[in-house]
Amino acid sequence: MASNTELQEWITQAKQGNTTLIDQYFKQLYSRLEGKLLQQFKSKDATQYYLCLAMAKFWEKFVHEDKPLPQTNWEAYFASIAKNAYLDDLRKNN
What we know:
mainly alpha
């Protein structure tokens, strides 16, 4: 997976209008996480929704708001956002 240095460079490129590398990274992450989250969410639609939501939250925080990137395992970061949003929605609906 990508280092923070690579990810920061891709964010800089995206801000300049070139989203190719960050799009590729998101596609790789999506592929890696889809099967794992599908087992938990039990729905392909839910898996797609919450993974896209996690990526949108990343985009908002680190591209639009320009917050500094934390040193983290990005695969776990995206999975955690998706799982937490899923669990929040389950709580709201119960």
